[in-house]
Amino acid sequence: MLPLLSEKELVRLEDLLITYGNDYSVLNLAELNGFFTALASSPITVTPEHWLPAVAGGKVPKFKKPAHEEAYTALMLRYASQVAEQLSDDVDHFEPLFEENEGEQGSVIVMEEWCFGYMRGTQIAGWTELPPEQDQLLKAISLHGLEDNFELLDQMSEEDIQACVPQVVEAARELFRYFNKLH
Predict the structure, then answer these.
(1) Dist. CA 113–CA 29, nearest whole Å
(2) Residue 152 in contact with residue 143, Cβ under 8 Å?
(3) C-alpha to C-alpha distance for 30 and 25, rounded to whole angstroms
(4) What pTM does this model have?
(5) CA 139 to chain centre
(6) Which domains are seen in the chain, by residue range?
(7) Contact by Cβ (8 Å): 22, 53
C-alpha cells in the first residue's frame, strides 16, 4: 500500500497538471479524481501506459526538467492507487472530490469537473452498453459530465443541481459495486 498523498503533494500534482496541461487535458484534482474513480470502477483494467497520455490530452507532455516528469508520473500513479484503495476499502463512505464555490446561499458543490473526469475515464476504459439500472446510474453522472447536456443544465435551478449531488455520489458507489461483483 502506497502512502496517501500529502496536501503538499496534491498541490504539486495540481501545479503539474496546470503547467503541462492544454485544452484537452485534465487540469485539476477534481477532474483527476473522477477519472481515477471511473478507472478503478471499470470492468476493464486500463494500464498507466494508456491513461497517462489521456490525462495529458492525448500524449505525455514534453517536460522541462526530468524532475518534473518523475514527480508527475510518480504522483499520478500514487493518486490513481489512492482513489482505487479508497473505493475498495470502504465504498460505502467513498466521497468524490467535488469542488466547492461560495454562492449567495453559502457553499455550493460543483460536480462538473469531477463528472467530466469520470466520463473521460469511461471513454478511455471503453465501457460498453450497461444494463438499464447501471445505465441510469451513469446518466446521473453524465448529466453533469458531457457537453451535450449543457443545455439541460442551463435550465436547472441551483437547487435542482445541488439535489443531484447525492445521486452522483451514490451512482459512483453503485457502479463500483456493480463492476466489482463481476470480478
Answers:
(1) 9
(2) yes
(3) 13
(4) 0.94
(5) 15
(6) 7-182 (1.20.120.740)
(7) no
